[in-house]
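Course assignment 3, question 2. Fill in each field.
Student: A.L.
Task: Predict the tertiary structure for the chain below.
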Amino acid sequence: MSVPRTAIIMPGVGSYVPGSLRRLQDRPAVRDTLAEVDDAVGDRATLSPSRLLIDPKAPDAHELMDRHELSLHLAIYTGALAAFRLLEGDFGIRPDVLLGHSLGETAALAAAGVYTAGDGARLYLARAAACTIHTSDPGGLLTLRLASGHTLELLCSAQLPGLDLACDNSIEHTVVSGPDESLATFAALAKRRSVVSKALTVRTLFHNRLRESAATEWRRLGADVDFRAPRYPVLSPLLGRDYADERELRDGVVGQLRHPVRYRNAVTTLRERGIEVFVETGARNVLGPFARSADARARTVVPVTAGADLARVACALRAAGLLHQDLAALAAPSDAPGA
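Answer field:
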């Protein structure tokens, strides 16, 4: 039986669930990824990614964002990468393309073999250092149930300092970034226009031109990380095409601080390339609805949901037409190739 053309999607904020990998922690692909990231981070994060992903009683995203933001971002990165390596190593999933959303860009490039899992974690440490050196006023993200064109019109009419369009996720979902004071005023304006909005749980300002100096510093601090050619194509949501060389790959990593995520356009591009199934590697269904909004024919699946065991992952993949083996054939652990 033929396997549908597949994109692996690495999510960002919103995909973390405490203890999401607890029933898969003994699989080599998961175990080794957790160990590699923990070793790279050492004591430079207040909470280890492995604890957050294995312990169901670990702090939730709101608590982590208040006191342990770096640990939360490392857990999102590690969880997405471990899920991908499980799909690749245990289930033989070979995507036609990878795509990262916001923080997920770092995981997508690690999954493609551009750098190791440990080096991806070191890039997060470099980002934290860059943001400490080049601080900004407290800022965040605000979601809007509004198309990007109307969001831009609202931004232009508001004329509030520091606000940028951060994400164009779907025809009815955008995200605005900026300083807290401007965001609060903008949310009130949106409410007066009968536009539904919601603040996201973030503390670091992302996808905003105010972070240009921090992005430049991040690139300098991360220069010692070796980048290699990707094993799989990786689509840049900003460029609207696959990354072509090392310069573009490095720009893509630091771009999450400065540039918007054009996810809706990325989904359209992938559908035009014949992608049928979008496999999200987070612990919950965050990006699937956006993909279906961009194209109702797109099929989406989140196989490694929070608390899933091997059988549940296999069931989800089989339902999506991506797996034709019996679970018994998958019983022996196998290592992901090209880690």
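Instructor remarks: The chain is about 45% helix and 15% strand. The longest strand covers residues 164-170.
Grade: pending
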